[in-house]
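Cytochrome b6
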Amino acid sequence: MRKQILVLGLVAAGMVICPVVNASQDSEGVLKLSKQVKTIFNNRGCMDCHASDAELPFYGELPVIGNMVKEDMENAQNHFNLSEVMNQLEKGQQVNEVDLAKIEKSTADNTMPPTQYAMVHWGSSLSADDKAVIADWAKVSRATFYANGTAAAEFANEPVQPIKARQDYNEEKVALGNKLYHDTRLSGDNTVSCASCHDLNTGGVDRLKFSKGINGQVGDINAPTVFNARYNHLQFWDGRAEDLQAQAGGPPMNPIEMGSTNWEEITGKLNEDVELTREFLKVYPQGFSGETITDAIAEFEKTLATPNSPFDRYLKGDKTALTSAEVEGYNLFKQYNCATCHVGEAMGGQSFEKMGLKANYFADRGEMITPDYGRMNATGLEKDIHRFKTPTLRNVELTAPYMHDGSVETLEEATRLMLKYQSGVNASEEEVKLIANFLRTLNGEYGGKPLSLNNL
């Protein structure tokens, strides 16, 4: 019999409302629950499919059925690899928010393991006690590692949280970074700045399919928003930059984007600016360099959080902040496989997901280009092909066109396509509309002013 994917539903999104846990839960309690969850996964055979070193069963070499088993195991890996999680569970360490949400939701939905798999693999089904342990572990882990103390008690265990206003930055560096972010001298022909592609007045993007760089050249991937980039686990669609500073160092040397030859070319121009140099030396006595310039820009970008959206206010307890239809859209967002990947304060940026889990996006779209290989371009690993960083959904109404390829013009169409290709859901027009309108409640504030299409 065909071997089924062990945790078919782990990609499902949403959450289960649980009682609030005291955020002071000690590490010993987390460790105890984590080891219990690891034991459950081992005893129920989860690693038979969802491990990096998972081995084919004996019937995996049989004619016909063997190909189906291999396909199922590959599909399981595309959905969720548990290997790193198992190591974290053993040590009681912080598990990625996405992994946490996937495990929590699939358990609550009884999609781990799938029914057909459990029918031929006795002992693989989760017991009521197993589910209770996993739910407790998810709740305690979220309270211990991720709760920021801003959500109302009834929403404290949601997979998404309100953005918390922060002041953990150096104001003098921020001021310099702001100037450099908007300085066209970072480009080879003095025409392109960081803000050219990531305009703070247009949602942190340029609202183009592909950005225009030096000498009128056009790139081949859609520019992601710089707003809330501070929350990303890694930077760029393929995660090739470790942090904001590494990201800031990429475009100036990119021959299509800003086209400078080297940092000496840039620092030579900046050193001619007496006033800027004087200001810069007060903060960076070592002067202009690739390291100091990108450090200042990164410090500025840390300030580009956009709190206080209507949705944030709702999560903080203001039930008037959303309409009943918008709340219904949020519930569909959780029901239809969205909130396990779009997690945390930024509602994204914490994982790399396979584009086309439920249907072949690239076969349907047509010709492939290099950026379509996604995370594989950064790691060189075939398993990472078509994986992309889950984008933040904050201010998503403002950042069209959508997808890494900039191929989608409207929020409704982006919603419909993501439901189809990532969740396997053929949603009705009404459901798509409800979810899209919920997403419009994610527009926050920058500099104390609401971000909206009317202000662009």
